[in-house]
Amino acid sequence: MNIMSGQCVFGQKKHLFFLPLSEKKKKNGPKSLRDLRAERQAQAERSVLVSCHPKTHENKFLKYLSRHGNVNKCFFYESFGTYAVVEFSNQDGVQSLLESAAMPSVSHESVVPLRSRLLSLRNVNTVDTDKQSAPSANHRELCPSTTHSLTDENTRLRFLVCSLLNDIAAAYFPQSSIKPFGSSVNGFGKLGCDLDMILDLDGTICVRPQPRSGMYMEYLVKRTSSERAVTQSVLSVIAGCLDQFGPGCVGVQKILNARCPLVRFAHQPSGFQCDLTASNRVAMRSTELLYLFGELDARVRPLVFTVRCWARAHGVTSPIPGAWITNFSLTIMVLFFLQRRNPPILPTLDRLKELAEPSEKCVLDGNDCTFTSDFHRISLETNTETLDQLLGDFFEFYSTFIFNRMSINLGRYGKEHKPELHPLYIQNPFETSLNISKNVNSSQLERFVTLCQESAWLLQSGSHLNTLLLPSHISVVRGRKKRKSQPASERIKGLLESLRIKNNVSFGFTVFFKNHCNKSL
């Protein structure tokens, strides 16, 4: 399977294969994130999550489900047990299945039953379960240790978890909705990434009164000191409900004093670590922007994943919070680099704002978040550079970038002087006063630049792309201590000589990405 190939998904009776991304775009054009989200949410609303016996046979299980309605999609996965995601063709199938489900009998009077689309198939004889294990192909690990980019099944499960949680939140806020954002939907996520969600309360707000009706809805909000206090109160209520009654929700933490208040918990049936916010609408727009950039050119996402793979192999990024460059910062750096190609591969944010229609104007919390999401209005110059060329030029670009004076800003084509003295300044695309790389210290930035210099040298010398994943002989190590070493040119010459002995064949970018990025992400 090459870089741009689609993922295999399991259907009702046979394997279904999605078209490669490039073929999809040729036939239908890129799909907007709004349309994609609406499609995924509709799928989730007519789906259920079922805890199954490990030896449940797929065909007999589907035959049982078909009594309640036509099944569009069904697949199994492992996460603290065996689970099945079942999508019906309409919500009538879901309702029929729920009506046939029985509440477990419990003797404890304090137990409060909660009607949920998370079901447990306990009486396996009901579906004539085989005593043999189901074929291994019918079971997919959705949340293993970080390896591949998100599959269709994993994305479906993420939207289903949001939908299940929304069923709980709707008891308090009937017109609200819980939506995923960030890496779960922007196209740059990988298996194992957290599930970031926002409780969108916009649907609960009355837009325009109708005085002629003679009737007003009672709309009372107890007085609070600020909008932030309201957000904290709303999240506190939802956190308490998830902790006490949320099926599968464990380890619920209220982190309400953070810059962006949130509720953190684990959803055991899916294996996802979840963060739920209620006021991070700017992050939703950032998600849409990154999705747009990823759809504009087929080289964007493979290059981002490859650079991330390289960064992880050399310890430039880390899953542990600290002074390292984050994956989000690294993604912005790749996008910034692609904006600076000649001709540019990606437009600037300012250009996207110029192309926006009046109806697309968007101001959130005082931040101008306007840009067009209409692909038909965005015209790009032809750039024929290969991924191999772009990877080498990325390293060259940042090995000579003037970090002490210049900032990284997706807004403008021109050079932008950084407004503060932090070693690395990457401007938040919409909250322009924020530096998203404020945590990075001088030693980590120096380490990144040195790695870029060595990697650029290796590629220019025609070395095997595998060498990019070898430990780098650099002078700056983690912490403040430095070890004495020979000049960089001598170190690199020695490294090249040893590598040429071991590797006499140069492989292509596709082989490198397939064989190594999936192992290191």
From TrEMBL:
Boundaries of every RL domain copy: 33-101
GO MF annotation terms: poly(A) RNA polymerase activity
Domain Poly(A) RNA polymerase mitochondrial-like central palm per the UniProt entry, residue ranges: 148-294
One Pfam family it belongs to: MTPAP-like_central
GO BP term, example: RNA 3'-end processing
Superkingdom of the organism of origin: Eukaryota
Listed InterPro entries: MTPAP-like_central, NT_sf, RL
SUPFAM superfamilies reported for this sequence: Nucleotidyltransferase, PAP/OAS1 substrate-binding domain
GO cellular component: mitochondrion
CDD domains reported in the protein's UniProt record: NT_PAP_TUTase (cd05402)
This protein's name: Mitochondrial poly(A) polymerase
Organism field: Neogobius melanostomus
